[in-house]
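Much of the work behind modern protein science is quiet bookkeeping, done one molecule at a time. Below is the pair of lines this work produces for a single protein:

***
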Amino acid sequence: MGLRIAIDTGGTFTDVVAINDATGAITVVKTPSTPADPSVGLLNGVRRVLDEVGASDRDLSMLLHGSTVATNAVLEHKFSGLGLIVTRGFRHMIEVARQSVPDGYGNSFFWVKPPRLVPLHLVREVGGRMNFSGQELEPLDEAATLQAVRELVEDGVSCIGVCLLHSYANDAHERRIGELIRENFPDVFVSLSSVVLPEYREYERAMTTLIDVLVKPYCRTYLNSAADKLRSQSGDIPFLIMQSNGGVVKHSSAGEKPVTMLLSGPAAGILGSIHMARLAGYKDILTIDVGGTSTDVAIVEDYAPMYTSASMVESYPVKTPMLDIVTVGSGGGSIAWIDPYGQLKVGPKSAGADPGPICYGRGGTQPTVTDAAITLGRLPSALIGGAIKLDADAARAAYDKLGAKFGMTAEEVAAGALEIAAVNQVFGIRQVTTTRGRDPGAYAMVAFGGAGGLFATEVADLLDVRTIVSPPSPGNLCAFGLHVSDVRRDYIRTLVRQQSTVDNQEILSAWEDLAQEGVRDISAEGIPPEKIKVRRVADVRYLGEGHEVQVDVPDGVAGLAAVEHMFKDFHRVHDQTFGFHYEGEQDVELVNLRVQAIGEQHRPQINADMTVKDAATPFGHRQAFWRSSGWVNCPLYKRTELAIDQRVIGPAIIEEYGSTVVVPASWTVRADAYGNLILEKNTD
């Protein structure tokens, strides 16, 4: 038996999806996460699924893994032991930061800068200077560098980021500092900005480098520990890690640059959504991944996700290629509360895994969205196959108390909490649609995550979305997405050139150098040459602009034609993004060249199940509440019993191992041959 296992480690649960290479059989399980040592939860997940299918350690053929460890280290402000080395005269780089203020300048009187990753007394300046073209103006002062590192170590620093001026143009000084640290202080973790982000804009480069070295001890330690244990049990099998760009790499490569692991779990969820939407026949989709604390949303057009090179992790800028995902603080654990003005609010505060919602019976005292759902009869009495018993009476008592403050019944205020949570999710979707000139009603919505089925129709009604796809085992879709990912590496070079004076051959040569580096690295991952392809992208702007847009070069456009396409197509992309262009009026400026090298991996075959079976009948009924119709005797169905193309007219509730799908009266649901549930808005 050859078994591919994919594991997505979250804050509360570790989701596991195993696929038999020979038969295509899929096995899904959930196990508790182990935040103190994520490698323990990872291997527990392997053991659990092997036992489930009756396989041995030697039957494991590949392990794929996505994790929130890197993100959580930043969110939990684990900044101790962090130091920074900069060029002389730039000690206050991260103190000055940028002039922009969140929510506009009207907030400038109240906004307080977030805690600095590195306090000023742990920033050291060193002599040595490069100019913007990479020419050395002053040699590196190696004696002063060693003294600076020695002082940082004496002050308790164990992780050092190095960000020198213009190192993207010439990395010689940074590489030498890295060598000095490794030779003289081998126990110190170090990250070089010229390796992490060889791109101009020193502040963002410094912050990304600091976050990389911040998470390096956590990620490298647990990945190496897991790899050692895995090797002793199953031999030298591929152990691949999901990155935020939607691709996987060897665990050793991920440990060298762990900043690429940020948002790796949500990235895998988008890949899983695309795969299942393709099988269901939808190429333009919105993805909505509703978890316990937050909701991740994204847009996909013609089966292709959107990418970005800049994001924020909490209040800290990170520049690394990643899928364009917007996160809002609205999930199953989001707390319902009353603000100082007497208004009902939901989130972003969450009950988390400990103590969790009131209905979990683990000491929670604040009403959550999950408590609202069970108060409304939307959830069963137990979750995860009976592993979590729910106390509906305790949840209702909390909403009785909250409702009394508004002169409302428990179910009325619970319905309001659910609607507010849905509105928060709508806000996230509008950030990736209407603010970019897209009509959300023109897309199908793929709803997943443990709580995705609870909110899907509420969100769709607000956006005029008329089709929803609920993939099989939606609570484990991020883990499934790991199975349908490719090996990916991203490369960048800053090359600021104006179209009016540029040598096109220089651009082409730089692009080719990046492409060759990508092919070499992907080949080292064990991918044969015929399975490797290269995608070229450029960051371009009009001369005088402060920020640039990305221009893709289509497959098949090569040589100097690729350079000409980049400059020509920029005007169209600028017009699509901002609503205007200056073609023929303003000079165009290239800023960065990018290459994405992709090694295509084998994808497990998901076969249609054409088994003929009788139409499912309700296994029971439960009273469920909707604001428009009050309490309704709602039929309950088991998802696995629905026949292909069987139509169930709402109101109805469909239950399965890891999630619940709520179908209101204005919606109809049917099952397809791939295990998807297709919800459609009634038009009559």
Summary: The chain has 16 helices and 37 strands. The first strand starts at residue 3 and ends at 9. Residues 146 and 184 are 8 Å apart (CA to CA).
